Structure formats: C-alpha cells, structure tokens
Amino acid sequence: MYCRVTDLITEAAAARPEAPALSLGPETQSYAALAQAVEAVARGLVGLGLERGDRVAVFLEKRPETIAALFGAAGAGCAFVPVNPQLKPRQVAHILADSGTRALVTSRARLAALGEAIADCAALSRVILVDGREDAAADARLSLVAWDDLLTGAPAIARPHPAIFDDMAAILYTSGSTGLPKGVVLSHKNLVIGAQSVAGYLQNRPDDRILSLLPLSFDAGLSQATTAFCAGAELVLMNYLLPGDVPKLCAAEKITGITGVPPLWIRLAALDWPADAAASVRYFANTGGHLPRAVLGKLRERLPSAKPYLMYGLTEAFRSTYLDPALVDAKPDSMGKAIPNAEILVLRPDGSPCDADEPGELVHRGPLVSLGYWNDAERTAERFRPLPARASGLTRPEIAVWSGDRVRRDEEGFLYFIGRDDEMIKTSGYRVSPNEIEEAAYATGLVGEAVALGVPHEVLGQAIVLLATAAGEQRLDPQALLVKLKAELPSFMVPLEILPRERLPRNPNGKFDRKALAVALTEPALERSG
Predict the structure, then answer these.
(1) Would you say 270 and 244 are in contact if contact means Cβ atoms under 8 Å apart?
(2) H or E stretch including 506?
(3) Mind listing the pLDDT tens digit for each residue in 8-64?
(4) CA–CA gap between residue 215 and residue 238 (Å, rounded)
(5) What phi, psi does 173 have (nearest 5°)?
(6) CB 170 within 8 A of CB 6
(7) Are 204 and 227 in contact (CB under 8 A)?
(8) Which of 107, 425, 489, 526 has the greatest number of beta carbons closer than 10 A?
(9) CATH of the domain at 317
(10) Which of the listed residues 143, 158, 187 is the one where a domain comes to its end?
C-alpha cells in the first residue's frame, strides 16, 4: 500500500534489492542502495530541524544525489522543489522566496553563481552541498552542510515526519515564459497514481531502461522517474549537450523508452539513429505540444520497432491523455483519450458539455487534480473550479482543473488539441490555431522548425507571422514556402510574413518560447495590410 511517493522506491527495493535503479555513465545504483540513500536524506533533513511540510529545493543537474534529495525530502514529510538547472539567479531566487524554501541542495559552483540573488530568501537557512562545503562562500546567515554529513550526521532519534496520501509532496514551477514562474502543488496521491497510470499504459516493466531526458523540474521529466520506480525499471540519467548525443547514448545504454517534447523530437527525427538504438527502443512518447505528422513519420522510420505514444500533459493534473499506438495511423493528429483514473471533459464557458467536434475547454477531473498554485489564491480560483454537473444528493462541490486549452472531441471520443486560449490568433474575424499553420509548414518539407504567432495589426486585428528555420543544410526560401502554404491553407490562415531564423529559442523545459518570440517581433514591419 503506497502512502508516499518514496514508497515506489522502497517497494521496488523490497521486491528486487539488487536490481539496477539508477545509472549515470558507468555508475549504477541498485534499488537497495537508492532506498538507503533516500532514507538517509530523510533522516538527515529531520536531523537538521526541518518540519513536516517544509520545502526543500534541489538546484542540480541530473545526478544520483538529485534523485536522492528529491525523494528523500518527500520521505522526510517535507515537499521537494526541483529547480531547473538552466534557470538564471533571478528566477531561482524567485522560486526559493516564493516557495518559502528552508533548505537548498546544490553544488558549490551553483551556490557561488546565485550570489546575492538569494539574499532576500528569508526562509532559507540551510544549504546542503553535494561536493562538500570546503572553500564554499555564502551569506553568513546560511548554515552550510556537506552532503556526506547529511547522510551520516542525523541523530539516532531522527525519524521522518508522517505523511498521508493527500499531503503535499512537491511544488513544480512552470518555466515562467509569461512572467515569473508559478508553483503547482502536487500531493503524494497525484504522483503515485500518476506513476501507476502512466507505467500501466506504457507497459513499463522491470527490464526497461528508461531515459531521463527532460528536466526533473518539468512534470513529464519527473514522470520518467516515478514511472521507472513504479515498474521497478532502471532510470538512466542524461545531461545532454547536443541532440546528436541522444541516439548514441540510446545505443550504448540499450534504452527501451524515451519521452520528449516536439522541439527535441524535430531535431532527433532529422538524425541517423544507430542500428543498436533502433533495436532497443520499444517505445517513444511525445508530450508538451502537438507532434507534427511529418516529424512523427520520420521518427517511425528511424525507430521502426518502437511504439509511438502521443500524449498530452497538464502540470496542474500531472498527466491527462494518451493515444493507443495501435490507433496512430487512424488518428495521427489526436491526443487520444483520458489516461486511466482520469476523466477529460470538453465544456462550454457555461459548463455545459460540447457536442461532437465542437471546440471547448479541456477540463480534467479525478485524483490527479493537483492542490492548486502555491501562494496564489487568485490564480488557483481561476483554474481550479467546481464542476457544475453533480448528482443532487452530493452537497460538496468537486474541484476540477479548467486548463485554458481549446480542444474538440470527435464522435468516437478521441480528443484533438486546437490551442491555448492565450495563443489563439484572432485574424480577420477568425480564431486560428497556430498548430494548424505549423503543421502545414512542416508538411511542405521546407522547414526544420516553425512557430506561428499573431501580432497586432490595424486592419486584421492580428497578423499571422511564421518564424521558421530551414530543413537540413538548405537555406529557407520564404517565397517558395508561401506559395506552398497558399495552396494548402485558406486565405485567412496564410501568414502575412515568413521570417527565416537560424534557431528558435526554447524555454527551460525545451518547448518553443512563444512569448519571447512574440516580444522580439516589432510592429513596423507588419503595418502593411498584405
């Protein structure tokens, strides 16, 4: 019986103690060793004086200590706050201050880089350094603790605080592309049921070697760890520098499962995969946005034995939908149906259900609905709202997540992503999905990456601008691309401008940074009416 997310590890250790749980390069850690490290971290944190519900932030690249710190914090009865290692000091300081973090696990170099940025993090009092505290400089009010001392220095009376299924286990901060990051609070229940559900439909098993490719601060990245441990599989950590490193590692490590986001898959689909990688990978999964059909086709050519899982994830509910690989040919543009133990509704603004193929808002209900946004009652009230349709005898409202994403459901119940309400382009009286324009651009074979945006326009309301990189080594010809798009799209969906770019920026989770691209665009070049 699971009561805490750390039970995923302890149960696997009890069943197969010597089985590999975690690896980074040549180093491998068994489930027994990982469980022991997690327990030592939990006891160590309690020994430092941390209380039930206190927040413990982890600001590290992927390494065994990162996993032990995250799960050890949850095991102590605290809540872990994974911080994306790509974030800058100001963003890190905001997360530490907003979450009220009391203890930070990091390295000497990262602590030095934070410098005075964390001076206003009033609750922060302990910094645990994985590479020792010698020569580490810090604010005098901070107590520095060496990792080894944390693991061995707890008094015998230190015992982890009790925790139940509904207690807070983690706070995941979004990338902050629309401003400073906001924290989504996940319970032990969210993490455990999410792991069981995803491991179930991915058919994860103990002999799997699952690649940890995405940031652990991203819900899909954290899910790689929880699903691996739920299945008793091995989690292979990777801090890649170049996309080309991924196929090589998959071949060397005999990886069986990979999950990525569209911008990364676009690059990986353009690479040659070693035969050993193609032979070992039995599934690949996409989340974090629509995977263009052309890219999906290339990936299936590169990995012919792998089952493709098209998924949709909602941080506020951890996981939401997936498409059965057997239906990918019949429904290649669908995000599938609800994952086990979740229900996905498509509702109108008044809360009534939409008809088949009628666009509406995706609303997620069930045990994966998170505890809301940390320290933000107003935004929580906007997104976490009661469901209007309830049996008359039920007097307590059920809270669901109103995603802000527009979707449609076909007559067979399959869901299709249209776009986020705040990303839809309003042009010439039409509401246009950026995904539809991008899909058409990829289908031409002329672009490597593409992002469609709406920018203010005096006549059109918003003008459609397509930013794109060239496919392969060739130069992007905007006029040739425009000709092909005009042949495929209605006139109101044809971009007014096609702007070649060498590279499209990404946010720390690896998704295209649409907000940064929109800010970078200037209006003067778009004043003509077309």
Answers:
(1) no
(2) none
(3) 999 999 999 999 999 999 999 999 999 999 999 999 999 999 999 999 999 999 999
(4) 10
(5) -95, 130
(6) no
(7) yes
(8) 425
(9) 3.40.50.12780
(10) 187
